[in-house]
Amino acid sequence: MESFGNLAAILVNRKNVRNSQDVCKSPKEAPKFEWLHKYRKASKGQGGIKQTLVPLGTAHTKISQHKKTGNSLNAVSRSPVEGNKRVNSGVEHPRVESGPESQGKVKREGRDDLVRQSSHTASNKATMLAMPQFGLRDNLVRCELLKNEDIYTYLENFSFFLGTYNVNGQTPKEGLRAWLGSTSTPPDMYCVGFQELDLSKEAFFFNDTPKETEWMKAVSEGLHPGAKYALVKLVRLVGIMLLFYVRNEHAKHISEMEAETVGTGIMGRMGNKGAVAIRFRFHNSDICVVNSHLAAHIEEYERRNQDYKDICSRLLFRQHDPALAPLAIMKHDVVLWLGDLNYRLSDLDVDNVKDLIAKKDFETLHSYDQLKRQIDEKAVFVGFMEGDISFLPTYKYDTGSDQWDTSEKCRVPAWCDRILWRGKNVRQLHYQSHMALKTSDHKPVSSLLEIGIKLVNEESYKKTFEEIVRSLDKMENECIPSLTLSTREFHFKDVKFMQHQAETLTLHNDGQVPCQFEFIQKLDEPTYCKPWLTANPAKGFIAQGGNMDIDLEVFVNRSTATELNAGRQQIEDILVLHLERGKDYFLSVSGNYLPSCFGSSIQTLCQLRDPIQEMPLETLRELTSSGDETRTVIIDKPLDIPKEIWQMVDHLYRNAPKQGELFQQPGLRSEFVEIRDCLDTGMPDSLPGSNHSVAEALLLFLDALPEPVVPFSLYQQCLECCSNTSQCKKVVSLLPQCHKNVFNYIAAFLRELLKHSTHNSLDVNILATIFAALLLRSPTKQDLAEKRKTQEFFQHFLVQDLS
């Protein structure tokens, strides 16, 4: 094989650690509902008798003060001020005390009653009743309360200021009051989103940036001077940041605060594109706020559509009860979505666009807007609303001016920066850009929304609650729950690697009482289903006479593909659906899996001259069932490297040496499907798809290898010798022959790419960061020091030929 065609690796396998320390504290004393005392039940606990409240509680559960791994790389969710820094505006911040006795403790100054994280009162009764300590009766109460919510709640309007600003990596050079303080009266809440906060490689790869503090300070000083605000939450993913402020008097009514992030960059991990989001309960309404930065370039609207869909499907908020399904974005009363959505104006050249702008014919211009067209086609943002646009396009300007782009590229002006909403009882009061700010090549945008929030009437709530309890007392003694299932057998045909399939199970409550169901574990099994299968939701509650659809979803990824490829596992499972106080139902799940080169080992693929799906399953089983010494040989001379690696690298070598943002810009999901099928079936003869899609497929291939190119057994040696070129070369000489061939082939290909760095903007650091995380995967969790050592190791092979 004389031409290049090997792969590229994945990326900073940066652990997505969040310092989730909200600037919130539970109030000293929870609101009192004295009439509830008669519904308390005495129960035995450790050390004697304790009082357990059945329908409502006042216990405080602390959340968000934890570290966890999220959906995307490079995410930060933290207290907005660290150290002893304070911002003197109208905004109150915590002060972190120093010294050995107080390390890590946060002293709230005048904040004790501002924001509680998770107290259970009438305004968040539904979550309290869903917690593990509450049983079937309490879920019956919850179901009926939610069904009758209109009886005991009323609407009150609150103003939400939403702002979005792509700052193009700049530092604040001017005050933000003209943007954030532009309303006649102080808003009740601020949701302020930034994109491209920091464009440096350090921010991209390690998520560290001083600009977070700089822009947060600028925001705090720019808020409306007519009120005092508390900074409740800050969440950032690389350059995408969201700040949430509330007026001090409202903070005590904020609860259930959660933050999440999703990267939609290369391989769905990198955070240069993606979204950050928060969700919270305000009084009795659930609100979700999303700040997103979608794919760039005028022709990439399909990629933007895919980014939007990925964010909606992957951005999930945890609930108090871990057994409950996470909350998706659309499972909220109101969704507020802002950001640089990057949709452009199509089918008009720059002169025509500027001519319409000069005439202020925004209605005609808007008809060419990609986002409007995609919404009209119901491709994205179904159910969302956007106000009329009566302001100039917000992109692209010469920095520091109101002049349209005069660079060589001469970008066509566009409304990239947008604000939309979804939900009832929402009225937009203004939607505008702010031309006075000239720091960036974008202009900031704001929208002021008046939102009807549900508040609880205590007397009506008390009456409704007591009526529910009386009726349940009678029902519980007389009725046994019962379900009808739409079907009990599910078959998934031709399951493929990373291709989602779903079937719907409909449950109908044909009994006389509401019922509670849950998929339960079978004997001696750790979970209720196989790892490639998910039931969504896996647990739930159905009102009398009601229906619920459950999606049974099959998705094979790198963690499950290897066993299925080898035939050691099949698409077969039995689900047990348990009905509380009722019987168990058994569901049969079956299907067939089409083997893939993705998730197969280098050793196995080097034994296959034909596409993997042309091989008998028994042959694949034999190839993977024996050790290296007794491995089955089905061809006289194994391939030097897997033909699939050669195909992808050769394609990129011939077509993409000068491709900009290679291995950094994602491809299209639909094109990956075509590439995978081509590699697995041999048809067509040449790889389909764009260069970016082939590059991402190569990264996914390396990421899915069950044993990385540098085997786990040699990982530690690589770390120990990372600074010594000759020792690094020696370690590579110890690799199994086919692994060594792949390693040298990829390194040679990447060195060729570096010869064209003036065109493709690649450098040694970028390629080492991306590929070291794939070629030298750690058998355990990898810390930052190890990541740097793996990058240093691989850099030796990028700067010179050591083969």
Number of strands: 28
Largest sheet: 8 strands, mixed
Rounded to the nearest angstrom, the radius of gyration is 29 Å
**How would you describe the shape?**
globular
Termini gap: 16 Å
Q: Strand pairing plus helix content: what structural class? A: alpha+beta
Number of helices: 23
The unreliable regions are 1-73, 79-134
Overall pLDDT level: 83
Binned, the helix content reads 25-40%
DSSP strand content: 15-25%
General description of the model:
By secondary structure, this protein is of the alpha+beta class. Helices cover 28% and strands 23% of the residues. The chain is built from 23 helices and 28 strands. Strands 3, 4, 7, 8, 9, 10, 18 and 19 form an eight-stranded mixed beta sheet that branches. It has a five-stranded mixed beta sheet with strand order 11-12-13-16-17, with helices on one face. A five-stranded mixed beta sheet has the order 21-28-27-23-25, with helices on one face. The longest helix has 21 residues, at 458-478. The chain is globular, with a radius of gyration of 29 Å. The two termini are 16 Å apart. Mean pLDDT is 83; it is low at 1-73 and 79-134. It is found in: Cytoplasmic vesicle, Phagosome membrane; Early endosome membrane. This is phosphoinositide 5-phosphatase. Pfam families: Exo_endo_phos2 (PF22669), OCRL-like_ASH (PF21310), RhoGAP (PF00620).
Indicate the topology.
Layout: E1 40-45, E2 48-53, E3 75-78, E4 91-92, E5 95-96, E6 106-107, H1 125-129, H2 136-147, H3 149-152, E7 153-166, H4 177-180, E8 189-195, H5 201-206, H6 211-222, E9 229-237, E10 240-247, E11 254-263, E12 274-282, E13 285-293, H7 301-314, E14 316-317, E15 327-328, E16 334-340, H8 350-358, H9 362-366, H10 370-376, E17 417-423, E18 426-433, E19 445-456, H11 458-478, E20 483-485, E21 489-495, E22 501-509, E23 515-520, E24 533-536, E25 539-542, E26 547-554, H12 558-565, E27 572-579, E28 584-593, H13 602-606, H14 617-625, H15 643-655, H16 669-681, H17 691-704, H18 715-720, H19 725-733, H20 737-754, H21 757-760, H22 764-775, H23 784-799
GO molecular function: inositol-1,4,5-trisphosphate 5-phosphatase activity; phosphatidylinositol-4,5-bisphosphate 5-phosphatase activity
Main location: membrane
Region (Disordered): 60-122
